[in-house]
Amino acid sequence: MPKDVDHAGWFTHTPTPGRRGNAVVVGHLDSKSGLAAFYGLGSLRAGDRIVVERGGVRPRCSP
């Protein structure tokens, strides 16, 4: 899990985001200090777009 609750991390035994295959991204919902990176996941609906940024760059992904 990422130490900074406002950021998500990538599970290294899966393809990196933007590569062919299923990437596994991990993060916190909340913390002792409040809401965290994945707090809003419950409001997502089928078809919603999720954007992953790595180091300020958005990898190219197919929808």
UniProtKB/TrEMBL annotation:
GO terms, molecular function: hydrolase activity
Record's keyword terms, sorted: Hydrolase
Domain of life: Bacteria
Keyword Hydrolase listed: yes
Matching InterPro entries: Sortase (IPR005754), Sortase_dom-sf (IPR023365), Sortase_F (IPR042001)
Protein's name according to its UniProt entry: Class F sortase
Native species: Streptomyces chumphonensis
